């Protein structure tokens, strides 16, 4: 989805299992404030036509973002905004096209750092959630070649990794617990299984993110202080690993910050945009 207008050009990237649809409040508010907005569906997410087993790599998953940044005119420096797992796609785009990104905003998002592989943030999140049982009724299911993925799915095709299927209790109690009931209902209708790509070579490459490229881009982390999924402790752990990252806080924001605190998030994005050259 893209809307016109002046101001800055925001590119909004959703988190795991979600799609461009989750930004509907933020996109509307930013556009009303005179900014341009592009909300993307990553591969096999949202309304993107690919099926999960067809997306062979994290780069393929992130292709819509990489293509959008590559296609931006040189004078149109972007403000990238990533939520949750979408922060890793942001990092890949920042490393490839640092001169096209005025700022990158990580909204309760995976924030990788120079000198470590990108998968370290997801691995740490999974370690913390597993030890505390935070994933509740979420399921981990095989991605089978040529078959639909869902709870209990079995297929004759070869396995292509695993996917997360978000459970309704997890969404209600750990992800959307401060959001309007309508947004939780919408999410339950639209979420799709999501691949974290933990075994992808891009996730394992400790030399992938460089100080000269990824490290040179202005980074802002938005802490969701009522996040029961990626807790405030986890969020601040990531910030500590990336010195120089600016921090904004939103009180009362659950993990679905764009729904629970859309106005406050737009205010933060507006301030960031005003400080960009």
Automatic annotation (TrEMBL):
InterPro entries: AB_hydrolase_1, AB_hydrolase_fold, MES/HNL. It comes from the Eukaryota. Residues 10-267 form the AB hydrolase-1 domain. One of its GO terms (molecular function) is methyl salicylate esterase activity. Coiled coil: none annotated. GO terms for biological process: jasmonic acid metabolic process; salicylic acid metabolic process. This is AB hydrolase-1 domain-containing protein.
């Amino acid at each position: 989805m893209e809307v016109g207008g002046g101001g800055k050009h925001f590119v909004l990237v959703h988190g795991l299992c979600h799609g461009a649809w989750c930004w509907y409040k933020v996109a509307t508010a930013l556009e009303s404030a005179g900014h341009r907005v592009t909300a993307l569906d990553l591969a096999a997410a949202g309304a993107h036509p690919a099926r999960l087993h067809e997306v062979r790599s994290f780069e393929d998953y992130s292709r819509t973002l990489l293509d959008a940044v590559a296609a931006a005119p040189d004078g149109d420096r972007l403000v990238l905004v990533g939520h949750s797992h979408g922060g890793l796609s942001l990092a890949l785009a920042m490393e490839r096209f640092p001169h096209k990104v005025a700022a990158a905003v990580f909204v309760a998002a995976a924030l990788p750092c120079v000198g470590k592989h990108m998968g370290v943030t997801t691995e740490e999140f999974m370690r913390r959630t597993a030890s505390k049982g935070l994933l509740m009724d979420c399921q981990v299911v095989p991605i089978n070649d040529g078959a639909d993925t869902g709870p209990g799915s079995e297929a004759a095709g070869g396995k292509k990794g695993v996917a997360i299927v978000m459970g309704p209790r997890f969404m209600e109690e750990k992800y959307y617990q401060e959001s309007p009931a309508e947004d939780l209902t919408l999410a339950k209708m639209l979420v799709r299984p999501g691949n974290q790509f933990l075994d992808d070579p891009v996730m394992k490459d400790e030399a992938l993110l460089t100080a000269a490229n990824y490290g040179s881009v202005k980074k802002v982390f938005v802490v969701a202080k009522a996040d029961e999924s990626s807790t405030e402790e986890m969020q601040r752990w990531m910030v500590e690993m990336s010195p120089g990252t600016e921090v904004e806080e939103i009180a009362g924001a659950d993990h679905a910050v764009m729904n629970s605190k859309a106005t406050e998030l737009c205010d933060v994005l507006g301030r960031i945009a005003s400080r960009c050259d």
